[in-house]
Design goal:
Number of domains: 1
Radius of gyration: 24 Å
Strand content: under 5%
Largest sheet: none
Number of helices: 9
Structural class: mainly alpha
Oligomer: single chain
Length: 219
Amino acid sequence: MRRSTRSPSCVARKTQQTLVLLAVCWGIGAPGNLGAQSEDVFRAFTAYIKQQIEADKRTFLDAQTCTEWFYKRHRQEQRLPQADRASLRSLDFIQHRALQPSECQIRYPQGLEGAREDFSRSQSSLSVSLTFYRFALVGDRNDDERYSGAELRDMLESLHVPFNSLLPQALHLVALTTKFDAARGGSSAESVMNGMGTLYEKGYRLTRQDLTAFRRIAG
């Protein structure tokens, strides 16, 4: 079997060319909010996180509503004699019509435990999303709503992603959203908290403008 004689530098060049090709292909085929130019990376990244925050909020509120409904129903059934429980179900439905209990039963066939598990999971996801949004705001050091090359480099390297200024901005955006998705998937904000600490060591701060934007989306 013939062994490869390519040098490490040759392999590195091939890898670099592959990354550039992937980035170009991504820029052509990516959704509108991710096919970004340099000045749009900040807007695209924050919009991507905002979209997930809104989804997390809806899931969290739905799980909270159903958890409360299942819990109240469980307590009421425990207090009533067995003979009265059938009449309770119809009355309970009318009393909580605004909470749509039938949807809770469909969404959580396991009942209270299923709703509580989803409540806990969605709470963790929302926390990660909000933390990443704060990181995205802090990364815009001068609050001009765009990431300079230096800001992108600092952000990516704080997340342990190598930065290459020759690569298209779309690929840097993909790297950021991939890190965000991975953190949400693991329900852990540790990586982004560490990254934010690294940015703070370099002089980045959560400014008054950042705080206003954060409160607007968190509220």
